[in-house]
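Notes from the 1:1 (GR / supervisor)

We went over the backlog. Supervisor wanted to see one worked example end to end before approving the batch request, so GR pasted a single chain during the call. The sequence is below; no edits were made to it. Supervisor asked that the structure be written out right there so they could see what the output format looks like.
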Amino acid sequence: MTTPQHPLASPFGYRSTTAEVIEGIDLDGKTALVTGGYSGLGTETVRALAGAGAHVIVGARRPDAAGSDLAGVAGQITVLKLDLSDPASIDAFAAEAAGITDRLDLLINNAAIMACPKALDPRGYESQFATNHLGHFQLTARLWPLLKAGKARVVALSSVGHQRGAPDLADINFEHRDYDKWTAYGQAKSANALFALELDRLGQASGVRALSVHPGGIKTPLQRHLTMEEQIAMGWFDAEGNLSEVFKTPEQGAATSVWCAVSPLLDGLGGVYCEDCNVAALMGPDTPRFSGAAPHIRDEALASALWAKSEAMTGVMFRP
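Structure output shown during the call:
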């Protein structure tokens, strides 16, 4: 069963926190894996899941920094090195994870980069698409036996930035068009949502469900490539450097990821894009700004084509 793209009767909303959405949820005996789980939203996601009793495996590009940043977080947490831009690192990480657990109940594909200058990974792929989408595509493929064993929920971090446009499958790497950092980010975040749509379709027979998430606007290290002048021009800060009131705290921003991972309202459902601790509405003429699911991330044919393109680009055949 595929979840329709319209809101549920969720008791939570825009300002809900991770503590609120996970209250009463017992994750003892469960194993979760969170990429980038030591900065910004990732830290709060790990804090909530570990606090509810889960053993949380954290994939970290800088394991020493992760260990330091998570030192004060209560619960069972294991940090392993993971560089999503390096296929060898992904394979090594997945093998290490399989040596620690024989199942995963939750996978939160949280790590990302945003609006960075044009760069190519060692294979020649545009860095935002390669890191945000292809890295997680390969990782999920390598973790598939564990996900299948746990009948897992997979949560892919997307963004309202997906509204900037669908992936251009004929020019992923901006070889035939001028590079624009926001266009590149938008196609990567659209890819995250389309990945969840197709993974949910393919994984249902094995009990694996997938959803994508817009966490909201949050001040985190994700903005490291943006100048303050750019952020003021976009309305994120005022001229005095005060953060916009529409921004969420990290605990509020991580709440939708955690809600998607643990909410019983989503039992047996999946394939949808979520925001504000609920399934988002499909965009229409009256949709408020910075909300809603654009029609292209519900395009099943595009999701299937992206999957095939991802297999070709990574060399990883992933057919659950």
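Supervisor's comment: The longest helix spans residues 181-203.
Batch request approved.
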